[in-house]
Amino acid sequence: HQQGLFVLEDTAHAHGSKINGVSAGNLGDGAAFSFFPTKVMTTCEGGMITLNNEEEDYIARSLRNQGKRGMDFGGLHTDFGNSMRITEINALLGRIHLAKLPEMLKKRQQAYELITAPLKEAGLSFVSTEKMDVASNYKLIVHLPEGKNAKEVKTALAESGIFLGGTVYEIPCHQQPVFQGICEGQSFPRAERWCPNHICPPLTSGMTKEDAQRVGEALVRHLK
Q1: Which residues contact 97 (CB under 8 A, 6 or more apart)?
Q2: CA-CA distance, 87 to 65, in Å (whole number)?
Q3: Cα 215 to Cα 219: distance, rounded to the nearest angstrom
Q4: What does pLDDT average to over the chain?
Q5: Are residues 120 and 186 both part of a single domain?
Q6: What pLDDT does residue 2 have?
Q7: Distance of CA 93 to the CA centre of its chain
Q8: 164 and 133: one domain?
Q9: For the whole prediction, is pTM greater than 0.70?
Q10: Pairing with 214, which of 14, 27, 48, 124 sits 20 to 30 Å away (CA)?
Q11: 183 lies in a domain?
């Protein structure tokens, strides 16, 4: 904002999150939430954008509705838009999940605390959400100690009956093929260090207390 830039907040996983009294989606000029099936809440597919400017909101609604301004569903196209309207069935699922979101976040927080308690005790490093007012806890990012290999750790955990989902990014964004020729020669040491050296253990609102404790104990067993 200080530089006059448009700030778009990546809130893909941040449903219900809050920090310093500010809810996710209100830290920039606009935000983008994902409703993909693996996210904290879902409509089966798609997502949602939020905007803090009425004019931009008006244009975004037009782009969603085949370039038709306002609530015009006739034949007048003002913008180059597309058909990105959510179906009523998908919207209904989203409304149901939205009503359950506070309880789902509470259960995720409980699972997070149970999994991370033994990690703290063992001195293992992970991305903490303790400074947040409310955290979605979509992923728990655990840093691998020196000498540990992500593939080997995943295999060992799977043999213990604990199957890990996807990581955040095994290959950093600037090394992805789509950015070839754009970020060439640039180095981002922290991203290059941590992307291949982390795992994300299971953490869901459906976990029992025993499930979460078992995950935490297994992580300590295979990472120490």
Answers
A1: 41, 42, 43, 104
A2: 13
A3: 6
A4: 92
A5: yes
A6: 72
A7: 19
A8: yes
A9: yes
A10: 14
A11: yes
Structure tokens at 89: 């069935």
- pLDDT 10s digits, 77-90: 888 988 888 899 99
pLDDT tens for residues 104-144?
Answer: 999 999 999 999 999 999 999 999 999 999 999 999 999 99
Tokens 């209100």 sit on residue: 26
Classify strands 142-143 and 198-199 as parallel, antiparallel or unpaired: antiparallel
Domain that holds residue 85: 8-89
Across the beta sheet with 30-34, the strand order is 8-10, 30-34, 47-51
Give domain status of residue 97, yes or no. Answer: no
pLDDT of residue 211: 96
Say how many domains are in the chain: 2
Q: What is the DSSP string of the chain?
A: -TTS---EEE-TT-TT-EETTEETT-SSSEEEEE--TTSSS-SSS-EEEEES-HHHHHHHHHHHBTT--TT--SS---S---B-PPPHHHHHHHHHHHHHHHHHHHHHHHHHHHHHHHHHHHT--B---TTSSB-------EEPPTT--HHHHHHHHHHTT------S-SS-GGGSGGGTTTSTT---HHHHHHTTSEE-----TT--HHHHHHHHHHHHHHH-
Contact yes or no for 118/220 (Cβ under 8 A): yes
Nearest alpha-carbon partner for 116 in 204, 220, 12, 7: 220
Q: What amino acid is encoded at 216 in this protein?
A: G
| Contact in structure between 107 and 134 (CB atoms under 8 Å) | no
Residue where the block lists tokens 């990105």: 84
